[in-house]
Write a structure and sequence with these properties.
5 helices, mainly alpha, 113 residues
């Protein structure tokens, strides 16, 4: 039995609340806009499209505003996107050690004493 204050309990309520809010917004739009009132678009589809557009807008804002141009998933999960073309892959540990020694030797040669 999980505690009532754990996120796993409240996460379900949060998801249900977001879904019900999108359904309510879709129903309000359907009642207020004559074109939507006359069409055969169900309230659930309209609410789902509103939620989809809201998430897409949030994604674009996160990419545009964040310092690292990260997506929503990267910000929430704490992950980092790495470009594989700029990374060096080594066959074994000895190759990694030799590469590290070579880089340190190059830095030491450039450094002014």
């Amino acid at each position: 039995m999980e505690n009532f204050w754990d996120f796993s309990v409240w996460g379900t309520f949060l998801i249900i609340g977001v879904l019900l809010s999108s359904l309510l917004a879709g129903n309000i739009l359907r009642r207020k806009i004559p074109f939507l009132r006359d069409s055969l678009i169900p309230t659930s589809v309209l609410g789902g499209m509103l939620l989809l557009f809201a998430l897409a807008l949030a994604q674009l804002l996160c990419v545009a505003i964040s310092r690292t141009n990260s997506a929503i998933h990267d910000l929430m999960a704490g992950t980092v996107v790495v470009d594989i073309a700029s990374q060096t892959v080594f066959r074994d540990t000895e190759e990694l050690i030799a590469y590290t020694k070579r880089i340190h030797a190059q830095r030491a040669a450039r450094q002014q004493y």
